[in-house]
Amino acid sequence: MTPPAAGRAERALARLVLGLEWLGALLLAALFLVVMAAVIRRYWLGSGFLGADEAAIWLHVGLVAVGAPLAASSALAMRLDVFVKLLPPGGRRVARILADAVTVQGALVLCLGGAEVAMLVGGRSTVLGLPEWLRFAAFACGGGLTVLLILGRAGLERGPAAALAALAIGTGLYAAAQLAPLVFVETPSLVAAAMAALGLVLGAPIPHALLAGVSLSSAFGGTLPEPAIVQNSVSGVSKFLLLAIPFFLLAGELLTAGGLADRLVRFAASLVGHWRAGLAQTALLASVLFSGASGSSVANAAFGAKVMAPTLIARGYPPAKAGAIVAGVSMLDNIIPPSIAFLILATATNLSVGSLLVGGFIAGAILALALAAGIHLTMRDVRDTAPRASARERKESFIGALPAIGLGIVVVVGIRFGLVTVTEASALAVAYALVVCLLLRSLGAAGVMLALRKAATEAAAIGLLIGASAPFAFLLATDQISALISGLVTALGAGPFAVMLMANLLLLLAGLVLDIGAAILLLAPLLLPAAVAAGLDPVQFGVILVVNLMIHGLTPPLGILVHVVSGILRVPAGAVFRAVLPLLASLLLALAILSCGVAAWPWLRSL
């Protein structure tokens, strides 16, 4: 491709990405307005808003479809590229082509499968009367644009030959999946898992690797034809509870852009800045406070890497150790409510969100204490203590932080005491953050739109993962893999301690190679029946499951929190992984304490 042609192609792709980001932002804004209108009518006018729930779900489906190409072609792509980096340059080039081919196949499943369903399905939605085919057509368009962006990026970065090779291999895999089964396997879901695992090792995005794996399992007797895969994916994201995810992300973005997160840092510094490793303890306490407003560990890790880490480095902390502190404390955001991980868990298992939030507070407190002890014991070589803040300074910083603290209180109290649903509480969180930032004049129209664009693309990436996991989970259920997992978990005995031990070991192994969200969606429905059969409380076990998997935000090779921080600080991920080991040990000790407590609960309850 000649330089002028490459320049035009690059500008065209950039315009397409920008257009998708803006469209996603508009859909998220419309989604917020619809839900807020329903909340206002319900609580102030005493009547419901007919069709609000259905309209919101359809807008969320559209948001996921629009963001699907961004989730595959940008930094939001959930890729496991650790193994690819170990290859020589030639091997890396081949692996990237194969990864693009797997992505193309997964996108073709959405595109052509969605188009097929759109042509076959009839009827209209229950309340709004919209044609049902529109939801599947949206996913078809998202799949088609994904193919375009993936091949466009490949052509610009590695040349037209690489793009054509990815297209040829991807379409070949897609065609192979459409053939009549020639080999029947007793458990096609294991074939799907193997195919998806191969895609992950090559560096394909997790959602597309899952879709490709399920599609290819059809050639081995899999029970999900392509239209059914898309139907399961659309159904997976068509749940009202999931609307809370983009809203909590948006509330966190607004707080960060509006400077309220900085106020939390100042308040935390006034409380613990005079301790040993005071700035590190400040980062920990600020993360605990910010957890009540964000619910996203990745968002907090990015914020901490931009705000806290440079200050830590300026105070004498080695860059790798500063990154390790930020990554370590950020895992609390998906434990202390509101937690996006708990929302995903509730979606996968139908557990009570309110009960999970209460468990998250208890677990979060124990983990925070463990991190505080780990920082205190391992930061002896850093001289970092600030003068003790006066009572007046603490009071002023507390007053300044009240708007951000108030958001967490409003959300958690409203959900716990049944005043509002989770989705309504998340929408109120956005309204609260928006009003406060505008009243304080810390955020303008440009900042609001940027927050909408960021939250929309992040929410779409999470939504695509949930949608792609749905057909995979269906295949696992059809093959009765839960019975196999139950047998594995109870291998050391059926008592609560034995089941808890084996479940934790299995989760620790799975978390090394699975994204946190994907692990929750795939493993929670399989492990929960064994836990309940052993007498474990399902909510308490769910909290342990999330804590276990969140710890993997700090473990190689995937370690998403470490990779986010190292990427922003431009510090090698390996150095941050080594520096985070003491904090990781503290968290594993806290996990052991929590697990023993949960396992002992059935015995204590019987006394």
Please provide a written account of the structure:
The structure is a single chain. This protein is an all-alpha fold and 607 residues long. The chain has 2 domains: 236 residues, no CATH class; 328 residues, no CATH class. The chain has 26 helices and no strands. Helix 2 crosses helix 19, helix 14 crosses helix 24 and helix 17 packs antiparallel against helix 18. The longest helix has 41 residues. It is globular, with a radius of gyration of 24 Å. The mean pLDDT is 82.
Major beta-sheet overview? none
How would the global form be characterised? globular
The structure class reads mainly alpha
Q: Which sequence of SSEs, written as H and E, runs from N to C?
A: HHHHHHHHHHHHHHHHHHHHHHHHHH
Mean pLDDT: 82
Number of domains: 2
β-sheet strand percentage: under 5%
Low-confidence stretches: none
Number of strands: 0
- The number of helical elements comes to 26
Radius of gyration over all CA atoms, rounded: 24 Å
N-C termini distance: 76 Å
Helical content band: over 70%
